[in-house]
Model the fold of this input.
Amino acid sequence: MLCNYYTSAFCLPKCTTAPLQRAQNAAARLIACLAPHDHVMSTLEQLHWLPVQFRITYKLCLLMHLIHTSQAPSYLSDIVTQTATVSSGSRLRSGSSDRYEQPRIRLKLCQRAFSYAAPAAWNSLPPMLQQISNTASFKRHLKTFLYQQAYLH
Done:
């Protein structure tokens, strides 16, 4: 379990994500004509806006989808490694899956790196989502999945 100092969005400190969430909340208040101290979560849900931590996950998973479907630039594709291409992974059940390797890290700070955070986000998705090859369809299903995670749990 992460301490209260960190958000669940890949070890980003709350001091990084809180201002972004406050800006999103202010925009929702402006659109819905709410008072400054009114709760905004139901308005975010009605607008179908993902909270910032889920939006970060959305962007990481979208980039991983582009890498997985060979649509991403090579400088991103070179950073991550699919589990199936690792020589020792060929004997494992995960060797034939759509998962990606997460590098071993020593510092919590390293969890913010794309090479760690993006595969972690991708690997947390259900296999049904990982197997979608159409980008527009993937975006729609991913947003639905994250929306359910954010508001229905």
Q: What stands out?
A: The longest helix spans residues 14-32. Residues 49-151 form one domain.
